[in-house]
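FORM 12-B: Structure-to-Sequence Request
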């Protein structure tokens, strides 16, 4: 009878080892995925910053063109 108990215990220990091994593999996969996602986040943040700067530059150019247009329209009104 104790031999059967020992076999059951051995089986449960083996199941526990297998489960731990699978969980360790899953943890490694999740760590790799997390690292890849972190890189994606950094890349997206960098792109966002670049687009914000570019947008600001376009806004400044637009303001400059609006001012030039106002100046030209003012000169046209003076001519009439």
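FORM 12-B RESPONSE
SEQUENCE OUT:
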């Amino acid at each position: 009878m104790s031999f059967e108990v020992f076999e059951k215990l051995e089986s449960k220990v083996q199941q526990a080892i297998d489960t731990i091994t699978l969980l360790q593999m899953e943890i490694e996969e999740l760590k790799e995925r997390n690292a890849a996602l972190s890189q994606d986040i950094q890349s997206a943040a960098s792109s966002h910053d670049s687009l914000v700067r570019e947008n600001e530059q376009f806004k400044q150019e637009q303001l400059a063109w609006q001012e030039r247009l106002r100046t030209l329209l003012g000169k046209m009104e003076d001519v009439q």
